[in-house]
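SEQUENCE, STRUCTURE TOKENS:
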Amino acid sequence: MDRIQKVAARLGKKAPISLRVNPDVDAKTHPYISTGLKENKFGIPSDAVYETYQYAASLPNLEIVGIDCHIGSQLTETKPFVDALDRVIVMIDELKKLGINLKHIDIGGGLGVCYKDETPPSVEEYANSMKPALEKLGLKVYMEPGRSISANAGVLLTKVDLLKPTTHRNFAIIDAAMNDLIRPALYEAWMDIQPVVPRTDTVEKTWDLVGAICETGDFIGKDRSLALQENDLLTVLGAGAYGFVMSSNYNTRGRAAEVMVSGEKSYLIRERETVESLWEKERLLPEE
């Protein structure tokens, strides 16, 4: 806040601010994407909210307009959302008693999707669970539906490069890897993997679908019953969220191309990275 105050004062402006609070609510999701517990790094701790808002109100070039919270991602029930909202409403009421009147509340995002057998609430169930309390507030409401919009709007297309059956496991080595989609390696996330053209001429086996990166954690799926041959195309469903944005050039691998499909038409919207593109931003040291 002090930084914003200094910049706003220098510009002769009054900067609108909205502060993120931590309601200390268990989102009941993967610990890496839980963001609303007091041990998480996010937001103002609940025991420091009022002091922080009062300090913000004392700064002449700041205008307090709202309060925000976001408790996590891939939530599959409404109760954590409601619990967080209830706690934030208590804060709003107390701030009002201190003479701090807000214009909006941002309830964040986190609504989950079905990757395997999850049963997340529908958008209607999500909205209806909080609607009565939000209507009583009379504030403008913001929400941030990220994964729930984009996850199932994208797929990762990959090719089977090599089949490697062993006495212990059957490995299907594909041209996608953890640098393209890190969710399985990072979160042990389950991704639905389906053949583009199902085969009827090959025996179905249990396969681990792995990339060519030099780590055992480089996999997209394990223990999948599929009828595969080399050069088959596979689709990894639900890859539209936390896919490309978390991709990297690990192991000197270029990022995949992106194609937008609209009805019968398709458009290349991001070119595949080339080997040359991996070092095009690098610069040689000057010769002495």
In short: The first strand starts at residue 15 and ends at 22. The helical segments are 2-11, 49-58, 79-97, 123-137, 147-150, 183-187.
